[in-house]
């Protein structure tokens, strides 16, 4: 150290390296304090009894596979609807026919703005009354209600993907004599989907969790998804909240691998562009 | 050498094009005869790319008429897709379909538009890839190729439609200098094979050696047009001379600057 050029005269100044080390030290101390408070403050015997109760968890075990399967099924059904309807909405949004654009915009604003829970209730109870049809299948309700909501989000994602395809791709296709529709289907959409694959994976993840909203519908045990099973365990078993923590873990079994896939895709497409 | 008596491939009459208030083309007349190679040169912003893009209606003309292969493309009810199948276009930025292999790039429109079978389309595509010297890269993705290779694939893609007219929009402007020769070589072979070509270019050597006619454009009008030896070798117009001086001798200061 030779000359300190920036320090005000008469005042010792810490070097940036030392300051960074001090800052890191403070952060570690804060973390340790928080962990210590949690450990000391928690009533561990109660936690073992009502939150991580092995007996209560074992009690649920026979109902879990079915519920797990249903959750996955509802998610996939809702995503199938969301993806197809979302694609149509995205194309409508970019249409040269103005009313299509209005409808699409209105749809997106509406379904983005109201809670998914309300849509589930509406489809489960209001639609049967309004149209005189009996929707007995939870799968159908999941596909319609959750599909309708996710379509709003997915359409925005896909629209961004379509607009990210360079204009030259369209010009090249059109100058080969390809029609507007064929250009969309064979040149623009395949490339748009590649771009939006990571955000779409995210959408599946959100949908997986939204299937928990289906618990509000009265159902027979064959239709139970994870959250319903967890809630039922709350009232029947002696294990307190254990049921909720068990199904929580089940959701993570689905969502964490999906998250890893999404990150992989992101890295791959990021490297390509 | 060009049969002037036959029906022209392109006939442009009094073409105007404006983008908003800006008039880019201000009354262009141009005809291209079968087998003729016409090079359009001129400073950037002179409207030459817009002129080319009006021929296959990538830009909608504001006024005037364009006839391509006997079809009036400025007629609002023209089947433009059908006209475009006979008109190949090569872009400055190549515009290969990024999600398809080289071979698929060359077969996509053949199968979808011309309704050729897969076998037939692949046979035609392979023949054209051979023609541009890239048959061995048929399975590659566009991103794996150099700019020069991509542009040659783009030419093969256009040729796979068996076009009767080829439009080139500054095909070598985005290339590294050492890759320009390969693309120009392919274009020269094409010209020698009798293809009718309308080429917007800055390659004066190419224009001079390959073109039957050179058109010099500036500020939205055709300033001078004629055989390359005249327009490039001994230009009559002052504007042409100034432009050529700058292009051919860019390191010199010119008194009019």
TrEMBL record, chain A:
It is found in: Cell membrane. InterPro entries: AA_ABC_transptr_permease_3TM, ArtM/GltK/GlnP/TcyL/YhdX-like, MetI-like, MetI-like_sf. It holds the Pfam family BPD_transp_1. It is a multi-pass membrane protein. It comes from Cellulomonas phragmiteti. Belongs to the binding-protein-dependent transport system permease family. HisMQ subfamily. The chain crosses the membrane at residues 25-44, 74-94, 106-127, 133-154, 244-262. This is Amino acid ABC transporter permease. Its main location: membrane.
TrEMBL record, chain B:
Keywords: Amino-acid transport, ATP-binding, Cell membrane, Membrane, Nucleotide-binding, Transport. Residues 10-244 form the ABC transporter domain. Transmembrane segments: none annotated. It is found in: Cell membrane. Its main location: membrane. It is a peripheral membrane protein. InterPro entries: AAA+_ATPase (IPR003593), ABC_ATPase_HisP-typ (IPR030679), ABC_transporter-like_ATP-bd (IPR003439), ABC_transporter-like_CS (IPR017871), MetN_ABC_transporter-like (IPR050086), P-loop_NTPase (IPR027417). The keyword Ion transport does not apply. One of its GO terms (molecular function) is ATP binding. It comes from the Bacteria. Belongs to the ABC transporter superfamily. This is Arginine ABC transporter ATP-binding protein. It comes from Cellulomonas phragmiteti. The lineage of its organism: Bacteria, Bacillati, Actinomycetota, Actinomycetes, Micrococcales.
């Amino acid at each position: 150290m030779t000359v300190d050029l920036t320090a005000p005269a008469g005042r010792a100044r810490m070097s940036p390296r030392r300051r960074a080390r001090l800052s890191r030290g403070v952060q570690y101390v804060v973390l340790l304090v928080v962990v210590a408070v949690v450990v000391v403050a928690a009533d561990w015997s109660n936690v073992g009894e009502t939150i991580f109760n092995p007996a209560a968890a074992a009690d649920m075990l026979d109902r879990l596979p079915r519920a797990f399967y249903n959750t996955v099924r509802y998610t996939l059904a809702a995503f199938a609807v969301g993806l197809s309807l979302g694609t149509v909405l995205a194309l409508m949004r970019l249409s040269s026919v103005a009313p299509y654009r209005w409808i699409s915009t209105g749809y997106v604003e509406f379904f983005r703005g109201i809670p998914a829970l309300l849509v589930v209730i509406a489809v489960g109870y209001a639609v049967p009354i309004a149209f005189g049809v009996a929707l007995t299948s939870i799968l159908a309700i999941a596909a319609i209600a959750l599909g309708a909501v996710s379509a709003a989000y997915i359409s925005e994602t896909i629209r961004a993907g379509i607009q990210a395809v360079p204009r030259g791709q369209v010009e090249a296709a059109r100058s080969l004599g390809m029609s507007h529709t064929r250009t969309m289907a064979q040149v623009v959409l395949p490339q748009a989907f590649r771009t939006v694959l990571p955000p779409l994976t995210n959408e599946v993840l959100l949908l997986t969790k939204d299937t928990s909203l289906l618990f509000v519908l009265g159902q027979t045990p064959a239709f139970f998804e994870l959250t319903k099973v967890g809630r039922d365990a709350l009232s029947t078993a002696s294990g307190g909240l254990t049921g909720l923590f068990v199904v929580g873990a089940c959701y993570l079994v689905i969502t964490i691998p999906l998250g890893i896939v999404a990150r992989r895709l992101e890295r791959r497409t990021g490297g390509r562009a | 050498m060009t049969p002037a008596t036959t029906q022209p491939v392109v006939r442009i009459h009094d073409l105007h094009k404006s983008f908003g208030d800006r008039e880019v083309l201000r009354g262009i007349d141009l005809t291209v005869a079968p087998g003729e190679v016409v090079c359009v040169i001129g400073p950037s912003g002179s409207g030459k790319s817009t002129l080319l893009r009006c021929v296959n209606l990538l830009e909608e003309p504001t006024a005037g008429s364009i006839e391509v292969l006997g079809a009036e493309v400025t007629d609002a009810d023209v089947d433009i897709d059908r006209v475009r199948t006979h008109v190949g276009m090569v872009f400055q930025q190549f515009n290969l379909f990024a999600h398809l292999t080289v071979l698929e790039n060359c077969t996509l429109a053949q199968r979808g538009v011309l309704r050729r079978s897969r076998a037939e389309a692949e046979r035609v595509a392979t023949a054209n890839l051979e023609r541009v010297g890239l048959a061995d890269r048929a399975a590659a993705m566009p991103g794996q190729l150099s700019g020069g290779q991509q542009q040659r694939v783009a030419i093969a893609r256009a040729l796979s439609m068996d076009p009767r007219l080829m439009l080139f929009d500054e095909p070598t402007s985005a290339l590294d200098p050492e890759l320009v020769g390969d693309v120009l070589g392919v274009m020269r072979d094409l010209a020698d094979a009798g293809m009718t070509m309308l080429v917007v270019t800055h390659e004066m050597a190419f224009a001079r050696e390959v073109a039957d006619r050179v058109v010099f454009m500036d500020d939205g009008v055709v300033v001078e047009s004629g055989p390359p030896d005249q327009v490039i070798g001994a230009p009559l117009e002052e504007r042409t001379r100034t432009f050529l001086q700058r292009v051919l001798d860019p390191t010199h200061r010119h008194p009019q600057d």
